[in-house]
Amino acid sequence: MRIFLSLLFTLLLIKPSFAAIEIFITEGVSGAKPIAVVPFEYNGFQTVPLNVANVIGSDLGRSGKFQPKSEFEMPQIPKTINEIDFTKWAEQNIDTLVMGQVRDVRPGLFAISYQIVDVIRGQITGGATQMLSNGELVESNDYIVFASKPFQVEEGDFRRAAHSISDRVFETLTGIKGAFQTKIAYVLVNDDAPLPYQLVVADYDGYNETEIVRSSEPLMSPSWSPDATKLAYVTFENRQAQIFVHDLYTGRREMIASYPGINGAPSWSPDGSKLAMVLSKDGNPEIYLMDLLTRQLTRLTNNRTIDTEPSWAPDGQSLVITSERGGKPQLYRIDVNTGKTRRLTFTGEMNLGGSFTTDGESLIIVNRTRGKYHIARQDIRSGTMSVLTKTYLDESPSISPNGNMIIYSTLHGQNQVLALVSVDGRFKARLPSGVGQVKSPSWSPYLE
Amino acid sequence: MQPTKIAKCLMIVLPLFTAACSTTTGEDESIATNAADTATTSGGVASNGTANGGVEVSTLEQKRQIEIEQEKMKQKALLKTSTIFFDFDESNIQGKYFEVLQAHATYLTKNPSVKVVIEGHCDERGTPEYNIALGERRAKSVAKHLQNHGVLASQISTVSYGEEKALDKSRTEAGFAKNRRAVLVY
């Protein structure tokens, strides 16, 4: 009854919210750690704009590391820590609780506080806030892993606030920095629209989709600046491929490469000073570096075959590129200072679209084996490759800034959609779009 | 005199003659007849013989003209074919397209002021960036073929759309085959 009431209460308070892209988790729930994000307690006089607990639960679920329990699976809905019945939770094998409180500050302004609770520790200590130690009564609340101070949140900022709580919970429990406040840039194609090609930026979970450019001609290859304020991308609006740099805050866009032939695959260096790109002005596709201040070009490759898809190593000293110099496309590492090149991939018919993981120790790859294109990970030192996906025609992998998740483009039925796979391959999810085709995802760096 | 010149002459003279006939009424008739006489005379001079010879020559010419027309139609039809298809991961032009490309080359060499854009396209297999490179290779393969047949480099430009502008979105083998193409756009 209590659950029912609380659910009713929640339903009445929550305004409907719409995501352009929903996320369906398709694999990996079983290996994840059970967690409960209890509905945040509120007894004020306003309408809470968002179910904070739901957003946090979804975030944690999509990380692949947690299995958030639904309200129906919760043995109780405690409002405060004192109300927690640790045994009941432990019986359900739920080790961790996240709970919180929302308070009114003034109309349109709320205060949120939240706690992360270790159920097992709580069960051992009996949840006592005081215990005897050496014959003295001392404060003991070590089962409270983290308790936030109340912080103020504007009505319109609840979603971001919820993601910030998710970040804190994730980092506290895994030691990995959360990436729930990051964004994704991608290309939407709707052939029925007068301007079919759209470059959009959305929250990582598909909310707050914002159109950056809309065009009658293709848009491709968005690449984030390391400070996440700009996007470099390719546009065909002038009937040829050109690279533009677009400031997301001012909306100012600038054409930076419009040479004869290909102007493609821009990739921002980790220090933000250069763009690696592909130009075919000298005959066939070669890798160049453009100094963004002087606009000076340095040519890095020189051979008669295709060289493309430059992607920076985290230290900015080398690039992984796709090259056909050995026959079929394979990945090579090229030192940006010396030009020294070494082949990295040997498994399968082709390896394309490589990028370094955030630790620089692995490569994320589009691998073609027996005609099938899948996302794979290769350990750079050992050369061992493991295929991560089972979807069809996978391409354009982009890694989250905490190195935990890969977003990529794939076919589902007749549609090009985005999908997620964890770097260890255990978690998989699909992000179907409402209308049209979705492709070329690019995960933003951390937003400061 | 060359038959073509005779033909041209007749083509100008004969319509004049018939036009004059059909439009003349009443008092103008005599003047018109005079004009017609003059025309006949000049026609006779031009054909340098009898009226019979003129008719014979024009019949042969008609046949020739029909042949020329037919060839023109064929070239026109060939020019209408502006898309050529490629095998998977290939940029070599198949022999069956040589005639089509020859027609385009002839047209372009006869009209040096005309410019053509060759678009290169790919199916959706492989990465978008690799396909941009492959599409360019296909477009350039067609450009080179045209240049080998006398088209000026300055008449040709290429653009690769990679896998971004699929013709067929069925994602079947047949669909993929339709998307692996180069298109000549005037």
TrEMBL record, chain A:
Residues 22-123 form the TolB N-terminal domain. Its main location: periplasm. The keyword Signal applies. Keywords: Cell cycle, Cell division, Periplasm, Signal. The keyword DNA repair does not apply. Signal peptide: none annotated. GO terms for biological process: cell division; protein import. It is found in: Periplasm. GO terms for cellular component: periplasmic space. Belongs to the TolB family. Part of the Tol-Pal system, which plays a role in outer membrane invagination during cell division and is important for maintaining outer membrane integrity. The Tol-Pal system is composed of five core proteins: the inner membrane proteins TolA, TolQ and TolR, the periplasmic protein TolB and the outer membrane protein Pal. They form a network linking the inner and outer membranes and the peptidoglycan layer. HAMAP family: TolB (MF_00671). This is Tol-Pal system protein TolB. It comes from Catenovulum maritimum.
Automatic annotation (TrEMBL), chain B:
It is found in: Cell outer membrane. Residues 1-20 form the signal peptide. Keywords: Cell cycle, Cell division, Cell outer membrane, Lipoprotein, Membrane, Palmitate, Signal. It holds the Pfam family OmpA. Transmembrane segments: none annotated. It is a lipid-anchor. Its main location: membrane. Residues 73-186 form the OmpA-like domain. It comes from the Bacteria. InterPro entries: Bact_OuterMem_StrucFunc, OMP_bac, OmpA-like, OmpA-like_sf, Pal, Pal_lipo_C. GO terms for biological process: cell division. HAMAP family: Pal. Part of the Tol-Pal system, which plays a role in outer membrane invagination during cell division and is important for maintaining outer membrane integrity. The Tol-Pal system is composed of five core proteins: the inner membrane proteins TolA, TolQ and TolR, the periplasmic protein TolB and the outer membrane protein Pal. They form a network linking the inner and outer membranes and the peptidoglycan layer. Belongs to the Pal lipoprotein family. PANTHER family: LIPOPROTEIN YIAD-RELATED, STATOR ELEMENT OF FLAGELLAR MOTOR COMPLEX. NCBIfam families: Pal_lipo (TIGR02802). This is Peptidoglycan-associated lipoprotein. It comes from Catenovulum maritimum. The lineage of its organism: Bacteria, Pseudomonadati, Pseudomonadota, Gammaproteobacteria, Alteromonadales.
